[in-house]
Amino acid sequence: MGWYGTLLLSRPADGMLPACQEVRQAFGSRFVTPSVMPAFGNRLGLHDVGGGWQRVGVRLFGRERLRLAAGVQELVAATAAPALAAWVSESTCVHLEARTPAGVALSMHLPNGGGSCAYQHPDGRPARVDPRRAVEALEAWAHEAGRSPVPETISSIVHGTWDGSPFAEDQVLGLFDALGCPSEREVLPVIDPQDPAFGDYDLWSYFADNSAGALILAAEKGWVLGPEHDVTPMERDYLRFEDLVWGSVYGGGLSREELIAEYQHLTSRWPDPRSSRRRKA
User: Fold this and answer.
1) Which of 188, 216, 262, 272 is least crowded, fewest Cβ atoms below 10 Å from its Cβ?
2) CA 50 – CA 9 distance, rounded (Å)
3) Helices 131-144 and 151-158: crossing angle, nearest 10°?
4) pLDDT tens per residue, range 229-256
5) Alpha-carbon dihedral sign for residues 171, 176, 180, 184
């Protein structure tokens, strides 16, 4: 099974990109870290690419919904800098959105062909873009960002066949390099979301996320669910704690000591999560 997620390239106004509210609201909260995705190392995690620019990979929880194009525009407005987001589906294809304050706007599917695509496109699949226009837009994006693009490499990626080797996420990282944004430094997490000090919160928040995601899906489909499907108070508390953990992974949130105190408060309120999540029939 390949990777699903978004790779972001932006320059936050301050702090770390995962701490930006606009990022979590539009692209998700499950930032790539070495402990969560050991097979990937941290190549999709947070990287400093110089000049205040950063890139990071992020995935969605079940209760979150991708807003790719709108999210990029909101990130541009919040940072007053260009932003680029690439949704990767099954490590096979990419939906790319690029915007700048000066008005550069590019929506593109990679591979940039007109044929059918069997992979997931939560924000809709863009139509084919004239390759020359796409390369010009990406060059303009890079110049406005103050970077030095490599047009030949950008062109080869836009014109590429994308036959699965290398994986789509690596192609995107290659595009970031070609835009003049190669990694200069890996930024390690300050909080491990799988820290043993947080107990088995991830198990109960997983169940809670499934419940919350099912309610959102039902609303999207127009299904009517009974009260037995409501998220319980215990589940809401576990989701709140999960938000605190993931909002702190790369800094900008709570310290490890503060999170441990929050977890202790959580377990004192819900000493038996198994019985507390039971619903009335």
Assistant:
1) 272
2) 12
3) 140
4) 899 999 999 999 999 999 999 999 999 9
5) negative
Contact (Cβ atoms closer than 8 angstroms) between residue 106 and residue 141: yes
Q: Is the pTM of this model over 0.85?
A: yes
Question: What's the CA dihedral at 156, 158, 163, 165 to 10 degrees?
Answer: 60
**Which positions ≥6 away from 180 have C-beta within 8 Å?**
142, 145, 147, 148, 149, 150
Q: How far, rounded to the nearest angstrom, does the alpha carbon of residue 253 sit from its chain's CA centroid?
A: 17
Say what the pLDDT of residue 165 is. Answer: 76
Residue 115 pLDDT level (bands cut at 50, 70, 90): confident
How far apart are alpha carbons 115 and 212 in whole angstroms?
35
Place of tokens 């994308």: 162
In the predicted structure, residue 281 carries a pLDDT above the cut 70: no
Q: Is residue 7 within 8 Å of 97, Cβ to Cβ?
A: no
Looking at every residue in the chain, the average pLDDT score rounds to: 93
Residue 57's H or E segment, with its range, is strand 53-59
- Determine the longest span between alpha carbons in the chain, in angstroms: 62
CA distance 213 to 230: 11
Which pLDDT score is estimated for 280?
46
